[in-house]
User: What shape does this take?
Amino acid sequence: MRAQDSATATRTIAVSTTAPAADRTSGTVHTGDTARTGDTIRTGGTVRTGDTVRTARADPLPRGTLLATLGVFAFSLTFPSTVWGLESFGPWSLVAVRSVLAALVAGAFLLAGRVPLPERRHWAGLAVVAGGVVIGFPLLTTLALQTSTTSHAAVVVGLLPLTTAAFAALRTRRRPSRTFWCAAVAGAVVVLAFTVQQSGGAVSRGDLYLFGALLVCAAGYTEGGRLARLMPGWQVIGWALVLCLPLMAVGSAVALSAEPVHLNAHGVLGLAWVAVGSTFFGLYVWYRGMASIGIPKASQLQLAQPLLTLVWSVVLLGETLPLAAPLAAVAVLVCIAVTQRARS
Assistant: This one.
């Protein structure tokens, strides 16, 4: 940026791109001069007509949406992978072993990066993440999948976006717009109607497990999204997994001794995906996406998750795709489009 002092000389003042700069020299801001974000310009002169001071900033929304979408893709494979895992392991063994494996992967990354321990004030939030998304949701959905089909579980868990948005509104005291809420509720109604139509209006024990999973997962997502604004997303899930490691290691030893194990290709692949793909990678990109675009908007992307899971249930498990699925898919995608455009 150029500035003229009160004498006659014209000099050039360098503006740092990494630290705020202050120009206290009396002079004039010239046309075409650019001030970067964070720079503070203090001039004693006047700004000429037509002069502009431009602020350059990157829009984080496209990248955040992409990361959250990758998380949804990873999560959509969780239920089919869990069904595969149950071919080799009992429900308690599968949940405990997947958590141990994911914690070992996360711990290796934390050690390699020499990441310091989180501040004491963050451990309570990490405990909520651990209880919700590392232990609670996997355990409750695994128990539900013993009696429910993958497609049925997928549409029930389709209520998760609305549940997460409600938790986020309470936790952060931020109120999304009326348009956002209308579209979110509409999407939830579509998913709920689809569920009731497929189940004949009955609520089974598996449904109760799934509804409980919605609550604990929404709490974990909300707290994890908040923490991801304070530390990298992979560290949020990494420390939550490490926090659970002692408990899950003991749980693995007890469960493996009490439940039969019959290893096969499906079981091993299913375990590998729910441990590394869903629990570590999926939550890593998901929390980064939520931190970028906000919890309410990111949660609405999950409206597509049950529909993706329906496709995987047909391709991987050979289940019959319900006839109502295409109509539900169109309606849900419309709701997603509206929520992504609504201001929150």
